[in-house]
Design a protein that fits this description.
This protein is an alpha/beta fold. Helix content is 42%, strand content 19%. It contains 16 helices and 18 strands. A 7-stranded parallel sheet has the order 11-12-13-10-9-14-15, sandwiched between helices. Strands 1-6-5-4-7-8 form a 6-stranded parallel sheet, sandwiched between helices. Helix 5 packs parallel to helix 6, helix 6 packs parallel to helix 7 and helix 10 crosses helix 11.
Length: 468
């Protein structure tokens, strides 16, 4: 269904007004999975998960298909995508649509849960993947609906219920997404309150969720602070933290393609994804041609030192940390604040810097891309490892030299390593494999899926059922 921007704006306004009216009622009862009190939310999820354990795997599959079907509605996807941009002030609607569709189509379900069997003279042992119970999941402001949908599918497929703690600056769109999930589940007879949250997300409510004794697994998608918080909880925790992905380009690469891939990857949703290219490290012999082609593909190059200094002061604070108000903003918007007017064909702001420049060292999460020249590919790889800061998140390399590709992959040890493509191919956009928006580098689970949210259990039958 094709609807105009004006139509979408009217629907968004109506939905937000409805949510505001619902908040004004200040009722203590649940409204489609939304509770006033975090303790009530966790208790409801606990009861729901106990009921859920009575359901079959076929039931789980049916419930997940209902979520996919509900969010396959083009109008709904456009609605939550626009609400995300309007409420958070981050990203672009067209990219939010791509990401929301991606998680609905490419997040694994029950097919991800594979049992093992070991048989021999002493009998039969089954190793199966069982649920934790109630999962407490923290969602970011950068990918609010994508994370809620992706985690809901994976966690429910694994047999868990989930209590979400969304970001306060994505409160309304998160609430709508959770309520829509609940309505979809209700239509197909799922237990009530498998996916819940609170009406007012806050640090206080997040802490209550983390410390609640009925929450058995914590999943944090966000910055290093929130990951550290869940890891210090004493509970099993999965942390999906920050990254600072470098893109290395050597002299063997297809330079024209590399330039386009880097600009496309860096500009995807205004550089909000943690997988996106944050700095380029180019071998000197091809650097000029790479920059020429980046300019052809939507880059605006800053060469004036004074202008670069102004840009630094614009988007970074006195401690050289990013200013939140510029996260996820477009290159056009950022340049306008410098008094430079460009059209929407400009997607990324580029500049040459040294390796110690704050744009290289900090994860900016905005379409500003520093380029560092090095003498050869070995220096490029070493520098990439250095500026990735051990986050073990994502890295890119454009090269036709298999030995050097292998060297970088081994040294940088990132969860995602994209070769000769844009960063987003690492999460299934134009690349093979499933998608996720919870990429657990700090705790090592990698690209999470249903099996990530399970615990291994062994069932042993002694001296029986070995038929070999």
């Amino acid at each position: 269904m094709n609807i105009s921007a004006l139509d979408i704006e009217k629907v968004v306004k109506k939905v937000i007004e409805g949510i505001d009216m619902q908040e004004e009622k200040n009722c203590v009862d649940c409204v489609d999975g939304i509770f006033e009190n975090m303790d009530d939310a966790v208790e409801a999820a606990f009861i729901a998960q106990r009921e859920y354990m009575k359901c079959t795997m076929a039931d789980r599959d049916r419930f997940i298909k209902a979520i996919r079907a509900e969010f396959s509605n083009e109008e709904l996807i456009e609605l939550i995508s626009r609400m995300s941009v309007d409420e958070t002030g981050m990203g672009e609607v067209e990219y939010k649509i791509i990401k929301n569709k991606l998680v609905i189509e490419k997040t694994p379900g029950i097919e991800d849960l594979k049992s093992e069997a070991i048989s021999g003279d002493d009998g039969l042992t089954l190793v199966e993947l069982s649920p934790f119970g109630v999962i407490g999941a923290i969602a970011p402001t950068t990918n609010p609906t994508e994370t809620l949908l992706c985690n809901s599918i994976g966690m429910l497929a694994a047999g868990n219920s989930v209590v979400f703690s969304p970001h306060p600056r994505a409160k309304k769109v998160s609430k709508l997404t959770i309520q829509t999930i609940n309505r979809a589940l209700r239509k197909v007879g799922a237990p009530e309150n498998l996916v819940v949250s609170v009406a007012e997300p806050s640090i206080e409510n997040t802490n209550k969720m983390i410390n609640h004794d009925k929450v058995k697994l914590l999943v944090a998608t966000g910055g290093p602070g929130i990951v550290k918080l869940v890891l210090s909880s004493g509970k099993k925790a999965i942390g999906a933290g920050a990254g600072n992905p470098p893109a290395v380009v050597d002299e063997t690469a297809d330079i024209e393609k590399a330039a386009k891939d880097i600009i496309d990857g860096c500009s995807f949703d205004n550089n909000l994804p943690c997988i996106a290219e944050k700095e380029v490290i180019a071998v000197d012999s091809i650097a000029d041609y790479l920059i020429f082609n980046m300019n052809k593909n939507g880059a605006y190059q800053i060469t004036d030192k004074d202008l670069l200094d102004k840009l630094v002061k614009l988007v970074l604070n006195d401690k050289l940390k990013i200013k939140t108000e510029f996260v996820g903003k477009s290159a056009k918007y950022i340049l306008s604040k410098l008094g430079i007017e460009v059209d929407s064909s400009i997607k990324v702001i580029i500049m040459e810097t040294n390796k110690d420049h704050p744009f290289v060292q900090e994860e900016l999460m905005m379409p500003i891309l520093p380029i560092v020249r090095v003498k050869d590919v070995d220096e490029a790889i070493d520098l990439a490892v250095e500026v990735e800061h051990g986050n073990r998140h994502t890295a890119m390399m454009h090269s036709k030299n298999v030995d050097k590709l292998t060297k970088m992959a081994r040294l940088i040890q990132t969860t995602i390593f994209v070769k000769n493509g844009p960063s987003y191919s690492g999460i299934g956009v134009g690349g093979e494999g499933h998608t996720t928006f919870t990429i657990a580098g700090p705790t090592g689970e990698g690209l999470t899926s249903a099996k990530t949210f399970t615990r291994k259990r062994r069932c042993v039958l002694v001296e029986g059922f070995n038929v070999r």
